Amino acid sequence: MEKPYVVGIDIGGTNTVFGIVDARGTILCSGSVKTQAYDKVEDYVDTVCKNLLPLIESEGGVEKIKGIGIGAPNGNYYSGTIEFAPNLPWKGVIHLAELFEQRLGIPTALTNDANAAAIGEMTYGAARGMKDFIMITLGTGVGSGIVVNGQVVYGHDGFAGELGHVIVRHENGRMCGCGRKGCLEAYCSATGVARTAREFLVARSDQSLLRNISSEDITSKDVFDAAVKGDKLAQEIFEFTGSLLGEALANFVAFSSPEAIVLFGGLAKSGDYIMKPVQKGLDNNVLNIFKGKTKLLVSELKDSDAAVLGASALGWELKDIRE
Questions:
Q1: pTM for the whole thing?
Q2: Which among 91, 211, 265, 299 could bridge 138 via Cys, Cβ 3.0 to 4.6 Å?
Q3: Helix 220-228 to helix 190-203 angle, to the nearest 10 degrees?
């Protein structure tokens, strides 16, 4: 293979992780930057490129890179743009793939970050061999990648599969970063868990280890740590979150009848505290014709690896227009 490597870039609401990947799916080297540290997207791209170029040089230089694949919130596969992403510091329509191509001279493709994770999971992880599954990413937000008949569903405009913005609470729903109220993301993301913790602490008088933490500083990890120590309030926060997510997953099953739903991200690694209520919520709400047919799985890949590998897969499909 004349150009043996591709670059995968995963843009998260908090961190951006990138790596050089070979044809076997091995991440040869990687790095990261803080996504939120750059108000101007041009400064962000410059910083990523500044950190990425030494990695590229260590593997033989730009001439060894076939393409760059990027996974990003609200990433449009068709246009290479990020459009109105609520968890990123840059607003409006951002022509990100074009910016990277201009700076590095390497063909670049972009897709939704959850779609990238789904591609990585299908190729290297828990969804190997599956043609119908749904990937749910539980991070700063809630993302999803839907695979039907072995193909990622993009829709006519590139934005299909925004399951994190399905409305799950109609009355007094929480405000979501997208501008609507009651979205799944407002409850079942890592930030949603922290919001639930603050609400529970205000509404109730239970003793809890979480009361030792300043309210605005509470994170989903704090809730998990407290739950592990037997904190009943923290465990109930997971019950509430998992039940709501399971109920939503039952609706998603009715949509595409997936072989599996794969949960990905830090929150998914909370073990039985989150998985048991999710499974119960799914079982209690799924249509009878689908009962017992859809497996609930946790990603087998490290958080950064799944999205980087998935994004990098886009790079193999690109033709070098400069050849």
A1: 0.85
A2: 265
A3: 70
Q: Which of the 8 DSSP states describes residue 300?
A: S
B/e letters for 149-185, b = 16+ CB within 10 Å, e = fewer, are eeebbbeeebebbbbbbbebeeeeebebbbeeebbbb
- The alpha-helical segments, DSSP class H, found in the chain are 41-58, 96-104, 113-124, 185-188, 190-203, 220-228, 232-256, 272-285, 303-317
Tell me which DSSP letter residue 206 carries. -
Number of H helices, E strands in the chain: 9, 13
pLDDT digits (tens, 9 = 90+) for 171-186: 899 999 889 999 999 9
CATH numbers and ranges of domains, the chain: 5-118+304-317 (3.30.420.40), 129-300 (3.30.420.40)
Place of tokens 């609507």: 180
How many C-beta neighbours within 10 Å does residue 2 have? 8
